[in-house]
Structure formats: C-alpha cells, structure tokens
From TrEMBL:
It is a multi-pass membrane protein. Keywords: Ion transport, Membrane, Potassium, Potassium transport, Transmembrane, Transmembrane helix, Transport. It is found in: Cell membrane; Membrane. It comes from Sesamum calycinum. InterPro entries: K+_transporter, K_trans_C, K_trans_N. Residues 30-526 form the K+ potassium transporter integral membrane domain. This is Potassium transporter. The keyword Transcription does not apply. The chain crosses the membrane at residues 67-88, 159-181, 201-218, 225-249, 274-294, 306-326, 351-376, 397-421, 433-452, 459-481, 487-507.
Length: 765
C-alpha cells in the first residue's frame, strides 16, 4: 500500500477570482490577521533597541541629549523607511499580488528579458500574469537604452542575479538571528525579577529551550496555532503603548519635543564617532519592515497599510517615547541592568509583561522562519538552490510550507549564535547588518523597477535611490564597523548559502547547455519507424527531461539498451516561469513528436515560483487528460502534414480538466475489475474511460488514438528519469573541476529526486 500525503487544491485558484473591490469588512479582517503574521518581528523591536544603542558606544548623561537624540533617530527612521518607503512606494511594486526580493527580480526579468532560466519560450509571454495590467515596459528615452543594455550584457545580468541572491541570503541569515535576539531579549527581563546570581544560569538555557520548542513546532504548521498570533501581537502592542503613555504623562510630558530633527544634529555633534557607531543599535527599530513587502501575497496592500499606519506605527512611537520619558528622569539604573525595556515597566507589571513578551517573540520568530521556507522554495523554483523536501502543512492554505532540512539547519545555527555570544549586544550587531543589507538590495532593485516596469523618468529613480540609499548606507556603515563584534555572522552565513546557490545554478546551467548541444535529431527518430526498432508494450512511459524542444540524448540510451518500451511515450518537462502563479487553464503545453503513428508526445507543465507542484496521482490524471484534449482538439489537417519538424514546433495550450467544462474528462473505476482466480498473481487494473463530449469534429482516426491512449492508461504509467553523472571536461581549470566534480556533484547526490526509476548516463561538461 502506498500512502500519499494530502494534496493542496490549487486548481481552484485563478486571478479572475481576485476581489476587485474588497469590502471594508474584508480589508479590516485581513488587517487584523496581518498583525500576527507580518508585524510580530517589528513589534518586538522595543525589547532591544535602546539596550543595544547604549550598550557601549554612548552613555546616558544627565543632559538627556543622548536619549533625546536616539528617540529622534528612531522616530524619523520609522517614519522614512517603513512608512514612507515601504507603505507608500515599495508595496505598489507587487508582482501580481506577490512581494519580496524575488518579486522585484521577477518583474525585471519579464520587462527586460534578463531571466536566467534557460528554458524560456515565447509562449510564456502569453501567460495571464506575465504582463501586469496598467504597467508597460519602458519603450522610450533612457529607460529603453537601460533595458537594451541589460539585455545585451550577460555580465550585468549576472550582477543583477547576484544582487538578488545576496538579499535572499541575508533573509536566510535573518532567519537565524531574529529568533535568537527576539527570544534572548524577551527572557532578559529575568534580570529584574530574579536575583543577579540566578539569572546568569537561567537566561541562556531558557532561551535555548524556547528556541528548540519553536523549531520543533514548525512541522505542525502555523495553521494549527496561527489563530493565536494576532491576539498575542495585539495584546503586546496594547501593552507597550499603554506603558508608554503612562511613562510619558508620569515622568516627562514634554518628551514629544525630542521628535524634532534638531535633536539628531545635537546628538551627532556631541557624540561624534560614538554616535555614528551607535546607529547600528538604532537600526534595529525597523527590523521586520521587509516582512510587509515579503508577505504581501497573503494579504492585500490596503490591509497591510491600515495595520501599520493605524496600529503598529502609533504603538511603536508611543513605546519608544515612553521609554525615553522614563530614562530622561532616571540616569542611574539599579541592579546594573543599565538601559533596557523592562526597566521602564512598572514593577507590578513585570511578570505579566515578561510572559507576553516571550509569546510575542515566538510569534515574531515564527514569521521570519516561515518566510525563510518560502524564499528557499522560490530559489528552488528559479534553479538557484538544490531541490529539498517541501511539506505542505495545510491542505487549504497555499503558502504554508515546511522544509525539514532548512528548519533543523536554522535551529542549529540559532542555538550556536545564542550559546556562542550569550548577550544581546553581539547578536544585535549581526541582526542589524542582515536587516539593512536586505533593505539596500530592495532599494537598488526598486530603482530599476521604477524605470523599466513603471516607465517613469530616470531622475525619479535616481532620486529614490539617492534619498533612501543614503539613509540606508549610513546605517550599513555603522553596522559594518561592528564586523568583529558579531556582524561577521550574517556575512559568513550569507557566504555559505551564496556559494551553494552559485554552485547549483552554475552546474544546472552547464548541464542544460550540454543537453541542448547533444540532443538527438528528429531524423534519427523517423529512421527507427513507428515501433522505434523495439517491442512496444501496453502502457504509458513518462520520460522526464529539462528540454523544451528536441529529443534528449538519454532517450537514445533508453531505446538502445531496453528490449521493450511503452506503446505511448510522453517526454514531459516540469518548468518554472518568472511569474508567481500559472492559471490552471494555461498549465500544459502539449505537442507531438514525429508522425501520429509513433505515439510520442511532448508535454510541458508550467508552474510559477509560488505554485504548488503536485506529485500525486492527480498530476498523472491531469497529464493524460491534457494529451487526450490535445488529440481531440488537433485538426485533421495535421495528419496530412508532411513536415514533421513543423508539427513538433506546434504546441497547444491545454488547461487542467477542471478548467474546461466541455473538454475531455477521465473516469476510472478501481472497484469494477473482476478476478477470475482468487490466487491469481495478476495485479487488478483500473478501468479508465474518457468522457468525450458529443462533437462531430472528432474524426475516426482521433477516436482510435484516444482509445489507444485509454488502453495504455489502463495498463499503467511508469516514470523514467535519466540519472546523470556530471563531470568537468579534461583540461578544465582547477576551480571548475572543484565546482563541478565535487561541489555540484555533492549537492546533486544529496538533493531530492524527481522520479522513481533511473538510468545512468555520464555528462562531461
């Protein structure tokens, strides 16, 4: 018995079903849900911002110039980066509702034809999501010249890909650092509620236990505990804003004056180099801002804007103002706690606030972990990461996935960082560099989107790049100066993942180039005759290939070494296109290889980088139905055509059976098979029938071909995959031999396979 996991129903998805005009009830419901999914990380930043800022570089003095300057920096940083940049500008650069680094890169790939996917086709440009309504490619002036320059120079395309991958690797690094600093800062409140002698032995072990529990919960999926996320974050935001209001009115009602930019000038003038270095701690107030754009696909622009503008942003400002108001009247902190969040919390509320903070830290960490899973899946779809096991934890919600290998790797790195540093100072230095690098990458890609996709002036794009880039470059320099004090961690993690991505991408591209150069000619297939020179037995043989045209060399290897082959052969290719989703109506491209009597077909299944790849029996049924629909819709004139090369180039767009109401349906009955003998060794076959609509256009020859396909399906299907051993050519450079013979070969042997049956063949690259 073969037990199969539940398959997610993505065929019901369609851009046509998108709500054009959302009701306010729907928008507010999405805004409520986004508080728990999107803003968990950002809302917990008050736990460690002031503590990290005043950790070493500057001191809190009785003049209050330092604390007022830090508050002014926090206010304007939150206003300019999350509010102005992301809410009002970047969120508009969605890729058919999807956001994130790869969404921007995908937009650029389509509008400038710079995609690194080798198996692109002109038919892909006809996809519904390939061109977004209302946005046209730049077709005049400097924008046209910029686009043509990018299309001509492969070096610029590689630089752009490298930029996108660096941002992606930093997001993965943030998936290690955010849980560590969030949980560690949350449990740091034990310093004020237990004795100093005991908290040293409790803090790190407790943080590690919470982290292990957090990563252990991942395989259950967020849908089981996700309903608690929004209430936890809302409770936390209410808690910190209420404490902030209390501290403002109780300690310093005039603290609002520090929001003036003048206090930033006074702060830098007094602290000078120390103040510049302390910007690495102030930077942490915007950690998690990128999630607003990255998680856009799960919500709507309006809901994310409402949640941030009316709930998250005011709560954070009140929290930071409240801490500053308290610290402006307390210059000597007891218990050697120095400056932190919990010292401004009233003593009677510290235990409840500690509990809520730990829950909020877990929620914030959960968001970045699931975001890391999603971005790894996108990298796999674009050929930039080895295939990994992707488990869909929900049969109803498309975006909820779990990757075991990545989950436990993140956990080990996270524990290593927590145990190795044992303080929030070094972890915050590392997290700050990862956060600001991702934002810099977004700013660079966004400036190109403004010109190439939005068709706006280059001056506007340069203004965007200079304004936000200069702010982020200032924070980046302050974070990079802390390289030896923890900031080396995201650089090291990103370097490791970047090497993996480049080695896999390079090996995959070279392997595809080899397959293209060594594919078999159609004349060779025609010379074999309808039987291909071997015995044709009942059944359907599915031969996987990455080629979208031509006959792969592995096919000649099969024909030469196998004594028999199936009566129906399908060369099928599963490829990803640079769009988030492919509509079910556009799922398959089906064509014929050789004359009709050969019964050899080509089928290309197209998926977007956010689509779910079905590997269940449903995919087999959709594949067979697409071939049957192709046979039915194929005109009788194709049988009279003598140009087989022209027939091979013709491919029809065929949707899944659920998308064409009047198309062919397949019905199979597993219970109607009768056995003549009880102890018969024969395996009972399912009876398969095609429900063909009444149509006089189906000629006798097409009905006979459908009958043969039906009988072949009854006999069974076999998946056949050529297992290639990739080696560098003799005489290749040392670096190439190391990359191909060791790096790529190691990744290939330890990545997930696509099929059950393998035949070996050596590919010298």
């Amino acid at each position: 018995m073969i037990l199969r996991r539940p398959v997610m129903d993505i065929e019901s998805w369609s851009p046509d079903y998108t709500i054009k005009k959302e009701s306010w009830r729907t928008v507010l419901a999405l805004a409520y849900q986004s508080l728990g999914v999107v803003y968990g990380d950002l809302s917990t930043s008050p736990l460690y911002v002031y503590k990290s800022t005043f950790a070493e570089d500057i001191q809190h003095s009785e003049s209050n110039e330092e604390i007022y300057g830090v508050l002014s920096f926090v206010f304007w940083t939150l206003t300019l980066i999350p509010l102005l940049k992301y809410v009002f500008i970047v969120l508009r650069a969605d890729d058919n509702g999807e956001g994130g680094t790869f969404a921007l890169y995908s937009l650029l790939c389509r509008h400038a034809r710079i995609s690194t996917l080798p198996n692109g086709q002109l038919a892909d440009e006809d996809l519904y999501e390939y061109k977004k309504e209302g946005i046209a490619s730049s077709s005049r002036g400097l924008g046209l010249r910029l686009r043509s320059t990018l299309e001509k120079h492969r070096v610029l395309q590689r630089i752009l890909l490298t930029l996108a991958l660096i941002g992606t690797c930093m997001v993965i690094g943030d998936g290690v650092l955010t849980p560590a600093i969030s949980v560690f800062s949350a449990v740091s409140g034990l310093e004020l509620v237990v004795s100093k002698h005991h908290h040293q032995y409790i803090e790190v072990p407790l943080a590690c236990i919470i982290l292990v529990f957090l990563f252990y919960l991942q395989h259950y999926g967020t849908h089981r505990i996700g309903f608690l996320f929004a209430p936890v974050v809302i409770t936390w935001l209410f808690c910190i804003s209420a404490i902030g209001v209390y501290n403002i009115f109780h300690w310093n009602p005039h603290v609002y004056q520090a929001l003036s930019p003048y206090y930033m000038y006074k702060f830098l003038k007094k602290t000078q180099r120390g103040g510049w270095m302390s910007l690495g701690g102030i930077l942490l107030c915007i950690t998690g801002s990128e999630a607003m754009f990255a998680d856009l696909g799960h919500f709507s622009q309006l809901s994310i804007k409402i949640a941030f503008s009316f709930v998250v942003y005011p709560s954070l400002i009140l929290a930071y103002m409240g801490q500053a108001a308290y610290l402006s009247k307390h210059h000597i902190i007891e218990n050697d706690y120095q400056i932190g969040f919990y010292v401004s919390v009233p003593e009677k509320l510290r235990w409840p606030v500690l509990a809520i903070a730990i829950l909020a830290a877990v929620v914030g960490s959960q968001a970045i972990i699931t975001g890391t899973f999603s971005i790894i899946k996108q990298c796999c779809a674009l050929g930039c990461f080895p295939r990994v096991k992707i488990v869909h934890t929900s049969s109803k919600i498309c975006g909820q996935i779990y990757i075991p290998e990545i989950n436990w790797t993140l956990m080990l790195f996270c524990l290593a960082v927590t145990i190795g540093f044992r303080n929030a100072k070094h972890i915050s230095n590392a997290s700050g560099l990862a956060v600001i690098t991702v934002m810099l990458v977004t700013t660079c890609l966004m400036s190109l989107v403004i010109v190439l996709c939005w068709n706006r002036s280059v001056v506007l794009a340069l203004s965007f790049l200079f304004f936000f880039g200069s702010i982020e470059a200032l924070y980046f320099s302050a974070s990079l100066i802390k390289f030896l004090e923890g900031a080396w961690v995201p650089v090291a993690l990103s370097f490791i993942f970047l090497i993996i991505m480049f080695v896999w991408h390079y090996g995959t591209m070279k392997k595809y180039e080899f397959d293209v150069q060594n594919k078999v000619s159609l004349n060779w297939l025609l010379s074999l005759g309808p039987n291909l020179g071997i015995v044709r037995v009942r059944g359907i043989g599915l031969i996987h290939t990455d080629l979208i045209s031509g006959i792969p060399a592995i096919f000649s290897h099969f024909v030469t070494n196998l004594p028999a082959f199936h009566q129906v052969l399908v060369l099928f290719c599963i490829k990803y296109v640079p769009v988030p989703h492919v509509k079910p109506e556009e799922r398959f491209l089906v064509g014929r290889i050789g004359p009709k009597g050969y019964r050899v077909y080509r089928c290309i299944a197209r998926y977007g980088y956010h689509d779910v790849l079905l590997d269940d029996v449903k995919f087999e049924k959709d594949l067979v139905c697409s071939i049957a629909e192709f046979i039915r819709s194929e005109g009788p004139e194709s049988s009279r055509s003598s140009n087989n090369t022209e027939n091979e180039a013709k491919m029809a767009v065929i949707g899944t059976p659920s998308t064409h109401a009047r198309g062919i349906k397949m019905w199979d009955d597993e219970d109607s098979t009768e056995l003549k003998e009880v102890n018969s060794p024969e395996v009972p076959r399912k009876r398969v029938r095609f429900l063909v609509p009444e149509s006089p256009q189906i000629d006798r020859e097409a009905r006979a071909e459908l009958q043969e396909l039906m009988e072949a399906r009854e006999a069974g299907m076999a998946f056949i995959l050529g297992h290639c051993y990739v080696k560098a050519k003799t005489g290749s450079s040392l670096i190439k031999r190391i990359v191909v013979n060791f790096g790529y070969d190691f990744l290939r042997r330890n990545s997930r396979s696509l099929a059950m049956h393998r035949v070996s063949l050596v590919h010298p690259l």
